[in-house]
Design brief:
With about 450 residues, the protein is of the alpha+beta class. The protein has 9 helices and 12 strands. The protein is rod-shaped.
């Protein structure tokens, strides 16, 4: 079964609301009219009752029936029955009075043989317990016909109001949902070549402006991700082109003529270095792909960050000594994490710091123990990184300064991306701060339970 459109649903909702309100108002008006007629009938019967009591109390013997006939002839739609205290019928002013009438005192309504009556029972002498009973009957058939016509009019009004509201509601909903159709048209036109399309937020009603803003933000993220993916594909091709070209050229040169065994051995050894670098690049890419899909599952073992940092500093000490760079560390904190993954992350940061620290510079590793997290920062002296480049430092294959690209395949620009993936796998965050003369990478790692 086909689902109703939003416009149809709104139109039906408007129609239902209008029908309910109209019906409620009509019922109230009908009840008010009925109560008004009852009040008028009560006043009329009470007035007639007072006149009959006066007439019957002042009647002379033998003239009572004539006096009653004269009194009742003044109002054709009014009838009278008089009964004794024993229930015996004494007098009927009309032959059309029903045989069975309500006996309870006060006002009542009776429907008999297609005629509606308002019946009032009252004693002739209110102060006597054995007083004869007067029963006044007022023909209210014309009142009931009016109420029936009004009920029919109410139902007709409800139907027409619901229909008119449904039509107007459909038109209003269709007009009001025009921005959604515009949004749908923009969405249909989106492709890899047109991710720069945006909705005009200023022309949207307030209720849809936030949705349009979110939609535009989503398109912006998609556009940025697509651009990054395109650049990433180009970077992969660029990174693999150089070693592949080296392998092809070196192999072709080696095979141009017969050579001694040592030359072939040297050629294979050179090719092996290029192949090892390519294998490392592929492994790094697979590692990042696992991180993107949430497949990095770090172990949770108790670690002393000072001990782990000292191991890495000892490893990098010869390289720092050759470069004339001073290594130092302060602070300690305990966390639960994966030893090999965290060592890899810190190793990437220390390697970057050493490569970009000038001679006689310094690299300082600081550990701050906080209540719920451990803060690890790696700071090095040297040229700072401009603020506009900081957000892209953790992009894959990205180098902050083209002058820092050493022209070799030793560093592919994946170290910081891998470091960020490891930190996030542990539930932490990493960012970079830089000013003229220093650069600092700061890691926030939760301590865990």
């Amino acid at each position: 079964m086909r689902r109703l459109s939003l416009s149809s649903r709104l139109a039906l909702l408007f129609a239902a609301c209008t029908a309910v309100v109209s019906l409620f108002a009509g019922v109230l008006f009908n009840r008010a009219s009925e109560a008004h007629f009852i009040e008028l009938d009560q006043q009329q019967l009470d007035g007639k009752l007072i006149g009959l009591r006066r007439a019957l109390q002042a009647v002379q013997p033998g003239t009572g029936e004539a006096r009653l006939a004269d009194e009742m002839s003044r109002q054709a739609d009014l009838s009278l029955r008089i009964t004794g205290s024993d229930g015996q019928r004494w007098y009927d002013s009309s032959t059309h009075i029903p045989k069975e009438l309500p006996q309870q005192p006060g006002l009542a309504t009776l429907h008999q043989d297609g005629t509606d009556y308002r019946v009032l029972n009252a004693p002739l002498y209110p102060d006597k317990s054995d007083s004869p009973q007067l029963t006044l009957l007022l023909d209210i058939t014309h009142h009931q016909h009016f109420l029936q016509r009004m009920q029919h009019l109410i139902w007709l009004t409800v139907g027409l109001s619901a229909l008119a509201t449904a039509l107007l509601g459909a038109w209003a909903a269709r007009s009001g949902l025009r921005p959604l159709r515009r949004m749908s048209a923009v969405a249909r036109g989106i492709s890899a070549q047109s991710l720069n399309a945006r909705l005009p937020e200023g022309q949207m009603p307030p209720e849809l402006a936030e949705m349009a803003h979110s939609f535009n933000a989503m398109l912006g993220r998609l556009d940025d991700s697509f651009q990054r993916l395109s650049a990433f594909s180009a970077d992969i091709a660029h990174e693999l082109r150089t070693p592949l070209s080296n392998l092809l050229t070196h192999t072709q040169v080696t095979l141009t003529r017969p050579r001694p065994i040592e030359d072939y051995r040297e050629a294979l050894h050179s090719n092996l270095e290029e192949l090892q670098w390519m294998a490392q690049l592929v492994n790094d890419m697979l590692y990042l792909a696992k991180a993107d899909h949430g497949l990095l599952m770090p172990k949770r073992e108790a670690l002393e960050l000072a001990d782990e940092s000292d191991v890495l500093l000892e490893f990098f000490a010869p390289l720092a000594e050759d470069s004339g760079v001073t290594l130092s560390r302060e602070g300690n904190a305990q966390i639960k994490g994966d030893r090999s993954m965290l060592r890899r992350a810190l190793s990437n940061l220390l390697d970057n710091a050493l490569r970009f620290t000038p001679a006689a510079g310094s690299v300082h590793l600081s550990i701050v123990d906080q209540p719920h997290a451990a803060q690890v920062s790696v700071e090095n002296s040297g040229d700072g990184i401009s603020a506009e480049l900081l957000p892209r430092l953790f992009d894959r294959f990205y180098r902050a300064d083209p002058a820092r690209q050493e022209g070799s395949s030793e560093h592919a620009g994946l170290g910081l991306a891998i470091t960020q993936s490891i930190v996030r796998a542990h539930g932490g965050e990493i960012h970079c701060e830089s000013e003229a003369g220093w650069t600092r990478f700061v890691i926030e790692l939760p301590k865990g339970k």
